[in-house]
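Pasting two entries for a bug report.
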Amino acid sequence: MNRIIYLSSGVKIFSDEEINDLLKISRENNQKNGITGLLLYSDGNFMQILEGEREAVENTYNKIQNDTRHRNIILITNESVKQRNFSEWKMGYSIVDPEFLSKHPEINPFELKKPSKIDTIITTFIDTFLNSFRNKVLYN
């Protein structure tokens, strides 16, 4: 198993319809390629975690690097992992206020049930991302 975490900025602010189109294509491609993970979007910025077989994850990341909808792509980590952290997550879309989520952890999709399975780097990035942006969050 391999995991890539990256940050990027969109070339513009995406509408809900554009995000939904992106999610539809991503779901289909990820399912075909055995990739799981997490996608967050807020105020024109993306954070994504991709998990799966090394070749599939790296091929997907290479496509993202060449996607003209992204700019300022920052690779955070590309590493081997023993298991997936987001194997049961399904990609969806929600408008979420991080302050609301912190007050209602029972409905927080990022409040993972088994924190021992999640690396510190992942929880730190998710927390930082959620606390940095206030409008839109996409979750897997």
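Entry 2 (this is the one that rendered wrong in the viewer):
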Amino acid sequence: MSAETRPRLIDTLGRTRRSFWDWRGRRPFWGGLLCILAGVPIMYIPYQTMTLGDLHIRMATTAGAGSLIIGVLLIVLGLTMWYQPQSRVFAGVAAILLALVSLVVSNFGAFLVGFLLALLGGALGVSWAPGRPPAMAAVEDSGGGHRAD
């Protein structure tokens, strides 16, 4: 195998990046990412113990299991937006409802960080619409071959 026949690393990275951009463009990527990121503080913070010098502050609430369930569901809904884009409206509405429930159950939605991320991610999931393929968009823009006489 000569140097000319080996695939170059730059070509491989370019193809990988391009295929990721294509994959990302066909689904509500940012809505799913924000929902996944929202699940982490909602799951984590209610079980956290903060230490200030000799003082230990435990953030645990009586609804710690509820916080864990809400966080896991938000992560699952974010992955659903990525891998099942046709159910993006359901996943977005469910994420918004879970964000509202997390205000009561999980330390004000994990100190409003998880709440705001889930609310924005759910809204992005609901509002996302698939784009038209470039060839079809050009045909529709030119009138689609139909004349209005």
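Dev reply: Rendering is fixed now. As a check, the viewer should reflect this: The longest strand covers residues 49-52.
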